[in-house]
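User: Reviewer 2 asked us to show a designed sequence for the structure in our supplementary figure. I'm pasting the structure tokens here. Could you produce the per-position amino acids so we can include them in the response letter?
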């Protein structure tokens, strides 16, 4: 049996996680033909087929599933060695990816990144602000901001902050529709909410917390588009106060009667949390959150 190298295993892991050759190649920063050759070389070296090539992408064979466990163990070991023995100054170069909910990433983190890049110009930051859960074990991100504390996996979680949410409508909408003076009045208006099967966290189920009788008329998959719909007069909806505050036309409805609170958590993987560039970004996010108390208030 011929020897295989660590580059081949990294290629294998990238394709296994991405499911598509072109996506994996982009993530690794290499040509897709090079990536394909590395995996073909790995399969030839160990004498088994690791992937089934289908129209939907690359699917792991049973042999590939077994190799995945060992390859991830080797990857974890390499990360730990790098964190322990690497030159700290070198750790502040390269790329670190943070996955966040779209509201946190867009309205809070993105405007503050310049503070970090000004001090560390060689550090490359990838901010993925999407309405989804990120798997750190699959290396979809180096750091993740979540709405709940993870209950499993080799991860560390740190509570960043609580934030307030309220019910909002546009000034134009309120001027042209029946008044909302009491709680019962909210049932006479169209609501904007989440697409139920695309609700990536149970913490997003705001309407049932207000009343189990509320059903959205318009369902939208992300909070930024929901805010735009509320601002455009489509109806009323629950929004984080830190987002609603950026749109002057929005007015909070019944703030004393309807007030919700959620939390953000910072999560890092046990194998990479001490890598210098990962730790730097995690510490930066924690520090920014700790000094921005009024940002999260109602």
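Assistant: Here is a per-position design you can include in the supplement:
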């Amino acid at each position: 049996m011929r020897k295989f190298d660590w580059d081949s295993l990294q290629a294998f892991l990238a394709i296994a996680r991405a499911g598509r050759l072109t996506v994996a190649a982009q993530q690794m920063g290499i040509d897709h033909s090079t990536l394909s050759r590395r995996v073909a070389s790995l399969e030839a070296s160990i004498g088994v087929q690791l992937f089934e090539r289908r129209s939907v992408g690359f699917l792991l064979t049973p042999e590939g599933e077994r190799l995945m466990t060992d390859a991830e163990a080797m990857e974890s070991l390499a990360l730990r060695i790098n964190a322990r023995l690497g030159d700290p100054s070198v750790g502040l170069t390269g790329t670190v990816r943070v996955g966040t909910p779209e509201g946190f990433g867009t309205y809070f983190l993105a405007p503050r990144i310049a503070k970090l890049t000004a001090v560390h110009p060689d550090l490359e930051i990838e901010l993925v602000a999407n309405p989804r859960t990120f798997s750190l074990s699959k290396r979809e991100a180096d750091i993740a901001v979540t709405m709940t504390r993870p209950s499993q996996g080799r991860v560390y979680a740190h509570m960043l902050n609580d934030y307030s949410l309220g019910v909002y409508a546009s000034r134009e909408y309120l001027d042209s529709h029946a008044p909302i003076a009491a709680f019962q009045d909210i049932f006479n208006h169209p609501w904007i909410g989440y697409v139920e099967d695309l609700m990536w966290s149970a913490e997003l189920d705001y309407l049932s917390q207000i009343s189990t009788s509320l059903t959205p008329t318009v369902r939208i998959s992300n909070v930024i588009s929901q805010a735009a719909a509320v601002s455009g007069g489509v109806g009323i909806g629950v929004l984080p106060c830190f987002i609603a505050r950026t749109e002057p036309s929005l007015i909070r409805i019944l703030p004393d009667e309807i007030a919700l609170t959620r939390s953000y958590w910072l999560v890092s993987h046990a194998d990479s949390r001490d890598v210098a560039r990962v730790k730097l970004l995690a510490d930066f996010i924690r520090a920014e959150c700790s000094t921005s108390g009024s940002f999260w208030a109602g």
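For the response letter, you might also mention the following. The mean pLDDT is 89. Residues 163-259 form a domain with the D-Maltodextrin-Binding Protein; domain 2 fold (CATH 3.40.190.10).
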